[in-house]
Amino acid sequence: MAIEVFSRYEKKYLLTEETYHWLLERIGENMEPDKYNKDGKLYNIANIYYDTPSDALIRASIEKPVYKEKLRLRSYGVPGMEDKVFLEIKKKYKGLVNKRRTTLKLFEAYDLINNGLDPEDAPYINKQVLSEIKYFLQMYHLEPKVYLTYDRQAFFSKTDRDFRITFDTNIKTRRYDVRLEKGNQGELLIDNAFWLMEVKSSEAVPMWFTELLSEKEIQSTTFSKYGTEYKKALTTKYHIRKEMEGELLCPRQFIQQQLQQQICYPSQLSLV
Known about the structure:
Layout: E1 5-16, H1 17-27, E2 31-33, E3 43-51, H2 56-62, E4 67-76, E5 84-93, E6 96-105, H3 106-115, H4 127-139, E7 143-157, E8 164-174, E9 187-188, E10 194-201, H5 207-216, H6 225-245, H7 251-260
Antiparallel strand pairs: 1-6, 1-10, 2-7, 3-4, 3-7, 4-5, 5-6, 7-8, 8-9, 8-10
């Protein structure tokens, strides 16, 4: 059974292809592949991120507040309507990430989010988390904003199952057909010459791994998949407006202006 409630610290790193392979050669002594990485193959993860009509949640997140939260629907591979998926609230407070999720069938998740229809009682549903998600949905006016998918290779520590490393590539997004069953096509978010590594642990990172990062001078980044996609969408909006209206602010100024418009933090959002 998948873990449905957990807290941990997460750090992200953008790696070149060379650095990715350098690390892979050195973590094997202490790490073992996730059971889904059969024969070294990567597995696919797909997500739908939900936000308000004015994108208030991602706007607030980009401002790097002490506390932030978001709702996403996740599947492993391309699901059918009867397949099980995960509906998840992800919160972050002072660097500590808390995830609370429940399993639902895809049609049940859509009915709950889009129409407010409760799923029938089933053993795979976490009732406490479902109640929290329903409150979240009542609190915000949410709609599907972006589909985001990637291929993942994951490793667990042989001695501490709370220590996990993931490598993501082929990160793609789309703002049309924002449904999990529509397939995993989309536009590349970053060049496939790079890998996004995420280091996840409930406690301190092991010394052997810290020494590897130091040896290769690998620095952490604040890269966010949804945040990067949103800024990219604003850049596209800038170029469209420039073609229609002529000269505007420079792209960076335009994006900052857009981020400042209608920013409101969760406590300021309208209630249903």
